[in-house]
Amino acid sequence: MDISIVVPLYNEAESLPELAAWIKRVMDENGFSYEIIFVNDGSTDESWNVITSLAAEHPEVRGVSFRRNYGKSPALNTGFARTRGNVVITMDADLQDSPDEIPELYRMITQEGYDLVSGYKKKRYDPLSKTIPTKLFNATARRVTGIHNLHDFNCGLKAYRSAVVKHIEVYGDMHRYMPYLAKLAGFTRIGEKVVQHRARKYGSTKFGLDRFVNGYLDLATLWFTGKFGGKPMHFFGLLGSLMFILGFVAVAVVGFGKLWAMHHGHPYTLVTSSPYFYLALTLMLLGSQLFLAGFVGELIARNSPRRNDYEINEEITHDA
Is the pTM of this model over 0.85? Predict the structure, then answer.
């Protein structure tokens, strides 16, 4: 099969027939073999009934329905597990992503050798309250992830080589960082394509401003787990050691100051009268705790069932 199209959705009953018809027209015009996997994320409208009707009329349509609303990341992860195509396309169900972009995305994966191609909605039909935070968010994501050629990490329209979606796990709200997840899994050929952004035709957006705050927190989580997930002592141990040494030096300075004053017959005060003494002790205690946290992290990592789960790209063997 050429293409699997994964469409996560929540309360998008009005747009689904039009979207399915549009995808079918594009696929038929280009002679692609394909499947559409609608993942109903606990919709409270008639979305699942619409999907059921579409599946009865069109054998290429498949559907999965959650009992309740879990979020876009679980929906994508569930859809990815069921894909059978060589190239996987993701798109939103609100008709703001154009299926006309699919043939070029497919070509970039199959002919130009990209592992992942992310859409870039250069011209957007969104208010400034959304576009300005989006620009700041993407600028931060580029710097932290090191993927400098992407302008829009959170664009729902993306294309993947099948191996990519089979080797990454999307959880929480990590769908915003699919390119970074792919990079952490060893898929580094990541490209971008300018795509059309269409104004919403039905309903209203399902995302609030809290996604910008959550986005930064998720980015910090991914950065930390990607860099120190397998070696937590390198983070906690280093930070704890530095804090302990700084605290120890501070205590030594306070103590040496008192001894020097006593030796030369100068007036002096008790060590415990100095606020620096308590700050130094606090640093030493925090440093010790961080160091121990590194040990605990190493024990957890050592007992993880995936501690030696390495992604092997190719292997050459000689049979005995």
Answer: no
